[in-house]
Amino acid sequence: MARLADYFVVVAFAPGKRGSGDGQGQILQRFPEKDWEDNPFPQGIELFCQPSGWQLFGERNAPTFFIAVLTDINSERHYCACFTFWEAVEATQLQNCLRKVEEEEEEMVEEVTALIQPAQLFAPKSLVLVSRLDHAEVFRNCLGLVYTIYVDGLGTSLETVIGSLLTCTIPITGGAQPDMEDEGARTISLGAGDRQVIQTPINDSLPISNCSVALLFRQLGITNVLGLFCAALTEHKILFLSSSYQRLTDACRALLALMFPLKYSFTYVPILPAQLLEVLSTPTPFIIGVSSTFQSETQELLDVIIADLDGGTVTIPECIHISLLPEPLLHQTREALSLVLDPELEMADLAFPPSTISASSLKMQDKEIRAVFLRLFAQLLQGYRWCLHIIRIHPEPVIRFHKVLEGMAFAGFVTERGPPYRDTDLFDELVANEAKRMQADEGSKVRVLRHIKELAEQLYKNENPYPAVTMHKVQKPTEGCHLRLHQRPFPRLDEGTIQWIVDQATAKLQSAPPLVRAEKKCMVPSGPPLGVLMERHGIVLANSARRLEVVRNCITYVFEGKMLEAKKLLPAVLRAMKSRAARQCLTQELNLHVQQNRAVLDHQQFDFIVRMMNCCLQDCSATDEHGVAATLLPLVTAFCRKLSPGITQFAYSCVQEHLVWATIQFWEAMFYGDVQNHIRALYVEGNGEENHSEKEEKSALEIAAGQCRLWPTMSREKQLELIQKEESTVFSQAIHYANRMSYLLLPLDASKSRLLRGSGFGGDAESVSNSFITNSIAGSVADSYDTESGFEDAESSDVANYVVRFINRFVDKVCTESGVTNEHLKGLHVMIPDIVQMHIETLDAVHRESKRLPPIQKPKLLRPSLLVGEESVMDGLRVYLMPDGREEAAGGSIGGPPLLPAEGAVFLTTYRIIFKGTPTDPLVGEQVVVRSFPIASLTKEEKITVQAQVDQFIQEGCAQLQLRSCTFQLLRIAFDEEVASESAETFRKHLGKLRYPQHVSDTFAFTVGQSAKPALQPKAKEKNPSLRTISRNLVKNAKKTIGRQYVTRKKYTPPSWEHRGSQQHFPEDHEDEISVSEEMDKGTLSSSTTIRPSDKMTMSHLVERACCRDYQRLGLGTLSSSLTRSKNEPFRISTVNRMYAICRSYPGLLIVPQSIQDNTIQRISRCYRQNRFPVVCWRNARTKATLLRSGGLHGKGVAGLFKSQNTPAPGPSQADSTSLEQEKYLQAVINSMPHYAEAGGRNTLSGFTSAHMSGSDSSEKRQPKLGSLMKQVMGGKDPGTVSRGALGHRARVITLSSPKSMAAKGRDSPRGKWGSIRASGRMSNYALTTEIGSRLAGKELLSTQPNGSPSEASFLRQHRASLYIIGDKSQLRGVKPDPLQHWEVVPIEVFDARQVKSSFKKLMKACVPSTPSPEPGVAFLRSLEESEWLVQIHKILQISVLVVELLDTGSSVLVSLEDGWDITTQLVSLVQLLSDPYYRTLEGFRLLVEKEWLSFGHRFSHRGAQTLASQSSGFTPIFLQFLDCVHQIHLQFPMEFEFSQYFLKFLSYHYVSSRFRTFLLDSDYERLELGLLYEEKGERKGSQLSRSIWDYVERLNKKTPIFFNYMYAPEDGEVLRPYSNISNLKVWDYYTQETLAEGPSYDWELVQCPAEELEEATLPDTNAPQSRRKIIWPCYSNRSRTEPDAISRLLEELQSLEMELGQVPERWKDMWDKVKAFQRAEAQADPSGRMGASSLLMASSLPHQRRSLGVYLQESGVSSTINLSLDNDASSTSTPSSGKQGGRKSTSTLYSQFQTAESENRSYEGSLYKKGAFMKPWKPRWFVLDKTKHQLRYYDSRLDTECKGVIDLAEVESITPGTPTMGAPKMVDEKAFFDLKTTKRVYNFCAQDVQLAQQWIDRIQSCLSDA
To answer: Do 842 and 748 contact (CB within 8 A), yes or no?
Structure first.
């Protein structure tokens, strides 16, 4: 029983000290006067009665009631029910009071009286009940009753009522029905005719909330309350604001009710008085309520969460982060709450909502919300009892929770609910019995709601056990009684009476017999174990069964000694260790192999086990929540190996570098677990053997519960004995753990006393036991614990001290918690240093022995194959190749074998960097990984550090390099620890030297085949003085002339080199000479020059150059002297630059208009950058329009050319002539065009410009209209198109022209028409329209479109300029247009080389990222877009298509951009490629590149940063960009190109590789200076390997069709117009593909080697094709070779068959042409259209159906034709035969024969070896046995039509088996020889094998017998 109320207090207003309006509370009376012994009177009640301060009011207020909560020093809560009413204060009364307080301060009183004279004042008075029980309604009623008696003057005496109130006792918890005798206990009456029933809760551990929780949710909403709930759990400060005190109390009560079963143990003040507001700045967490009048005071609190109950808001400061509930719990809780709070939500969308939705009453809703939170806690804490450790049972249970959760609330939970034998409540039942149900309900809202309702019922019943008896009868005061005017004050109560009543009751209680409370303790149920719950959560991975199988097998193999098998499985096991199930499986399996606590292994087994353990521990967190480290702990002290007699090394010395060992919580959990097991054993054994089996089942907690129940019944001796036993158990475990900890904390090499700081990783190569670095965590231990333990001498002390200190701290903590006696504890402290010392001594010996172990064998280095002439610079340095951001090779998300990281060596040769090695993963260990790239292509070399331990082999601190190449390759290498750091540095230095040689002549292409240090050779060795002198003279002359003529400022001058004599043999292009008549036309040369003999030789050499051959092909000019012919032609070949005097970067021969003299050219050239004046490079054969190229105009030139006439020209009058000449020059170009004469009138581009409103290119698919094309290029936009990139300015094309007088002064411009892109304010739209209007006036024939602009096609036809100059917008600013000329300038914005460079860098990083990204696909696309590479390609293609259109419609185009050697070159090359099918052949493409790129001086050396001089400029892939454009066109028109995509990749690779000289140096002039440009015929000695890439391609093309495109079927003269939108462009696979099997496939000799080995196992001797499965890996195999296309495969098969038949293989090209011809013939011969599939496949009507073709060549008596059947199985190899005989032994019947011209009868045919006549060798010949003619004929090869000889069968005498003679074919059975004896001589034959020989003999015999 408990008292309902402890104290009754009357508190009244008393004036404050200063006499201000604010007063203070004063306790008038309190009852009882004396404090209760068990419950002292709480201090400070007067503050809480008026939390906002005691004040006087001018009117009477209604009485108020609220409950404040005070917490005393023992954290007991006191509920103070305050009932406040107001009494009138008389002025005299107030004055008296004041006098009493301050008699001295007279004047003060005067003031006050003056203050209160006018009106009457009212002072508050409070009646307070203080209780430890929380019965709000009862208190309200009782105090109300006292007030009613006072106000209404009822007859009952107040003393009696208050006396009864203080003596009333009630049971704390209910449970029994209110029987008659129990009636007084729960129905109370205060003796005023009142009656109240007090409902005491059934279970007092459940909080009572009435409606407070529901109210809180109504005020704040679901999200806010959940936030507050999480904040309270995570110990944040929470402050409630409201203007109602009762609301504050309710809100705080509600929050506490929600937290059940956790208890809130911090500051809890539901109503905080004004005087105590500074409490809010306390550093500890709190839940406090404050009246909202003080809201402003709470503003500056930075770390307090403020919930405003009236406003419904929760304010969380920025600095606070509240961690919310984990998903899915958060979502489930929200959903459940909305089901309860808003049941209408579910029905809101129903078409026929139910008429009534029964909403719960507020009280019920309150319980439902609590039920939701109760379920939440049950889910969060389910299985918690399985994590409890009971470490002592007697004298009272000591429980530890080994999952470390911070938080006082949780600690309190464990203390309160941990004991196994106690009262249980709803929460215990829920956790134990409802876990399964809650999981089953998860998905279904209905079932969840049902469960919530059930729980709510129970909670409601707990609070209101007897709903029937809640009839209260309490008098209430009459309405408005507080407003009565003459209310007498509250009377003074009689202390004596009340005290007497209290004393009476106390005496009565003491005399009454004590109430024995029913013992309700029971054993707490544990619920389902954790494991069961976890698995149901689906945490265990689906494929874990397979993994576990692998783990088990591997361990079995290790212990059975099958090391190879184990090695194969090991990587899979290590990968599986990421999953928890696999880690647990590993520990279980290892456990099985430990007998009697010991398992001795051999070295290899030991290594495997240690590696698995390390990998297993690596993913464990420091707290080891999955218990893996815990299960491994006994194992690391069990597995060991013998190092030498008497010295054993245990596994623990090799698994020390894991953080878990340095975590004190881990050791505690382990310790408590072990103690629990031992204590359990103590009691299990104690109970005897008979019921042993069932006792085994009991958990420790169950046993403890049983023991607790028995404890009171035991004798004292028995109790002491048990206490002593338990204590010694704990003590012995402490000693055991001190040992274990010293094992895992002391490093193997403690001699160094080094401190391992930081994370505890690191270590040195010396402490290697076989392959494992062993070290310890002691350093980090010291770090983390020293400062706390007060040891500051960290530096001076050694490892042993740390370990001792760490163990001491541990022992102190666990022993005090588990009640070990002090004596024992002291003993332990003495013991620990000895244990550690002893262990150090043992380790010393182990360390010494372990250093003697032989190191683990590393794989042997694989040597790469080198090219002829490639020499090794640095031999293999052992390295690891680490994976980069490309996922395929490392397995990655795509899956597949992890080829990387690989272990091998890096080699540096004069040509390449090569890595060759094998994957560290033994599953793919037999594969060879090769990654290489040419040194010349290296773009970046940097040192890196890899954060993660990539692989357990790679040591920390080893040098790591990242090398990036512009062939899209990346080498991330980490040097092995055996490689000295000096070697790594040397490697870097050599690399730097080779990458940036001093001079081009030091690159690989020049030094190949020479000794490593090329020495300058003496001059005497020169074999060809004639050529040398020419070169020298040329250079000299050129230098003179250049010196004289270069007046303009030049940006770039190629360095002048001395001539080097070391290179002697220069190859020469295989070109037919074009005969050139020697007599030069004097008129074509400038008058000052006469040709010396040496110059004549120069001329003939120049004529042989590629560009000259092309000019002649195009009919652009001739060097002939016959004047008549040459004058008719519009252009001529000028020799003005043959000395490279005018322009150093141009070729020697140039095409210029016929009418322009050479000396004019010299002057014109000065206007252009680098003197690159306009020259013709191509002419359209149909329209005769020409394509010209030049550099951009000089600054000066621009000013002079295009500025308006008003600006006076600076400089001499010569300027006029220059600009006139320039005009003449352009006019001459225009005059050369045949349609010029017909064009008549002014031709302008206004059609293009005016069409910017109307044109859109959707109308014609293939041929975008010129207008829109031009508009796109110049930057205007169609309404529907959005073009990105440099041209994307939103601008209109505005055309303005103004007449201009011809007699303009100054340097005049070629008056072109100008389409400016930027519409400025002045050039208004009005001007535009009038201009166009006036230009169109009178031309009625133009049909105009509705918007007034002319229809485009006809408009363009009539008004097109004859010459368009494509210029750079930025250069041509401020230019005025001119309507009188025939040319027009098209200004475009292009990107410069810098932009290409930076874009390419980004492209490389996108295609070959250096680090993996979390979402590779997205990251690739994002970085690809950022690089803007495709935007640039789009731009180039767009402009090229525009130029093609212009040329195709008959206008000439001059491309005059930048210096004329980058983008200009790209454009003119692409234009020619698109316009002229010749350039799309192999030969033509070569010519195009030689002409436009090499002869016209693209700066390959400079742009490729090939030498030291150009290093700073960086790599700018202008040529690569061009090849990418060609690739895009190739993709769109696969039938138009003779060459394959591979050819483009080959060029892309080798133009940067420096293997060939073709792409070195910047211009013909420089090549000439080095003597490379042309060589005399005598110089064809020396190796051809490194000279010209074209020769190499040509030779290779003869051998194999690798560069040939089988789909080549060009349409005559087709002009290509590719789509250039970014959506039509593809990323070139050259950027993304790699072949790790062999490295890049562009050095053909290197790639060929391995292929022959692949084909050792060939087809068996049967006619049926055998299937052979091949595995092709995306980034490993070379697809085109392992799986060649059908045609290559057929050609190869044919070739290998020819080899087998011993014939000279036919060239593939001839074969291909024959097949095509045969197919065409067949197609024509079959007019009915019944073409078989075979014909269709290669017929020209369907040239591009790529099918997989297999050849079956039938044998027939009549004739055999080719039968192409669709077959995939036949094995194939793409090795082109290299001339060796044989290779495949297949049946000779498998051959193919195409019908030859003569129809012959061939009864039997095949290949035989025949020995020639006397002294002649054996040769393979094709023999045909002809029955009709009775002959045996033989031919050189199967396809030979010319018969080499005939043996007449009539002359044959006999046919006999022969014997091998000298020189006979090897490898052939002796019985395969036979002799044919004729009358003239004996013929010796040899067949492939015995059967064939027999067949021949039989056939010839049958022929003879037939005759």
So the answer is: no
Residue spans of alpha helices (H) in 128-199? 136-152, 158-167, 183-186
Is-contact 1528 1440, C-beta < 8 A? no
Q: Token pair of 525, please?
A: 């149920």
DSSP string computed for 627-665: SHHHHHHHHHTTEEEEEETTEEEEGGGGS---GGGG-HH
Q: Which residues contact 514 (CB under 8 A, 6 or more apart)?
A: none
DSSP string, 1623-1686: GG----HHHH---TTTS-TTSHHHHHHHHHHHTSS---S-SSPPP------TTTS-HHHHS--H
Residue given tokens 């907690």 in the structure block: 701
**With 50 as the cut, is the pLDDT of residue 661 above it?**
yes
- Name 288's Cβ contacts closer than 8 Å, sequence gap at least 6: 238, 239, 240, 252, 267, 268, 269, 270, 272, 279, 280
What gap in Å lies between CA 122 and CA 1647, rounded to an integer?
108
pLDDT digits (tens, 9 = 90+) for 329-376: 899 999 999 988 888 888 889 898 887 767 778 888 998 999 999 999
Q: Phi-psi region for residue 1242, left (φ > 0), alpha (ψ -120 to 50) or beta?
A: beta
Q: Tokens standing for 628?
A: 């893996």
Measured CA distances, 583 to 383, 577, 953 (Å): 22, 5, 21
Mean pLDDT of all residues in the chain?
Answer: 74
Q: Which two tokens stand for residue 120?
A: 């009457």
pLDDT for res 687: 57
What's the CA gap between 219 and 214, in Å, rounded? Answer: 9
DSSP 1406-1464: HHS-SS--SSHHHHHHHHHHHHTHHHHHHHHHHHHHHHHHHHHTT-EEEEE-TTSSSHH
- Stretch 1559-1570: mean pLDDT: 87
Distance CA 1310, CA 1381 (A): 8
pLDDT score recorded for residue 794: 41
Rounded distance between C-alpha atoms, residue 197 and residue 177, angstroms: 13
Residue 1720 predicted with pLDDT over 60: yes
Q: What's the CA gap between 692 and 708, in Å, rounded? A: 20
**pLDDT of 1046 strictly over 60:** no
DSSP character for 22? B
Six token digits for residue 191: 């003796």
Separation CA 781–CA 744 (nearest Å)? 12
Helices of type H across 953-1024: 981-995, 1004-1007
What's the Cα-to-Cα distance from 1902 to each of 123, 672, 977, 1873, rounded to whole Å? 146, 101, 77, 19
Query: Can you tell me the distance from the alpha carbon of 1816 to that of 930, in angstroms, rounded to the nearest whole number?
Result: 48
Cα(1495)–Cα(1489) distance, rounded to whole angstroms?
Answer: 9
Asked if 1601 and 1712 touch (Cβ cutoff 8 Å), the reply is: yes
DSSP state, 1886?
A: E
Q: Cβ(1886)–Cβ(1806) under 8 Å?
A: no
Taking alpha carbons only, the member of 304, 321, 308 closest to residue 224 is: 308
Distance between first and last Cα of the chain: 139
Which of helix, strand or coil describes residue 1766? strand
What pLDDT shows up at residue 1445? Answer: 92
**What's the CA gap between 139 and 311, in Å, rounded?**
29
Beta strands in 954-1054 (DSSP E): 960-965, 969-975
Which tokens go with 722?
Answer: 């048990």
Neighbouring CB atoms inside 10 A of 1696's CB total 22
**Which residues, 6+ apart, have CB-to-CB distance to 1648 below 8 Å?**
1775, 1776, 1778
**What is the mean predicted confidence (pLDDT) over 1582-1608?**
82
Contact 1024, 1579 (CB under 8 A): yes
* Structural contact between residues 42 and 130, judged by C-beta atoms closer than 8 angstroms: yes
- Please report the pLDDT score of residue 313 as a whole number: 93
Sheet of 929-934, strand order: 929-934, 912-919, 902-909, 872-881, 969-975, 960-965, 938-943
